[in-house]
Amino acid sequence: MKHTHTQGQFPLHAETSGEQIAIVTNQGNLYAKTFDPSAALLIAAAPEMLEALQMLLPQEPRETDSYDRAMWDNARAAIAKAIGKEDA
Question: What angle do CA 10, 54, 49 make, to 5 degrees?
């Protein structure tokens, strides 16, 4: 199943109701529900994390050691997964 993401800022925040946590847009629309507080925080932070990684990529140095290369490769792979362009 291919998923796409919403371009641009997509502010989200978590709201609790009993044991359930709702991830809500700043416009008040329900985005997701979970019982896992860690998942709620990750979902709410995902748009900002994607944007931060995308802003870092142009700063990638031309020459890196193997550890740094793996870090940059992981960043590119995470971006591809987030925007639905990973190889599957």
Answer: 50
Model confidence pTM above 0.70 = no
Q: Give the model confidence (pLDDT) of 41-69 as tens digits.
A: 888 888 889 999 999 988 888 887 888 88
Amino acid at 41: L
CA distance 12 to 47: 8
Tell me the backbone φ, ψ of residue 15, rounded to 5 degrees: -130, 135
Q: What is the DSSP string of the chain?
A: -------S---EEEEEETTEEEEEETTS-EEEEES-HHHHHHHHHHHHHHHHHHHHGGG--SS--HHHHHHHHHHHHHHHHHTT----
23/30 Cα distance (integer angstroms):
6
- Residue 65 tokens, joined: 């050691």
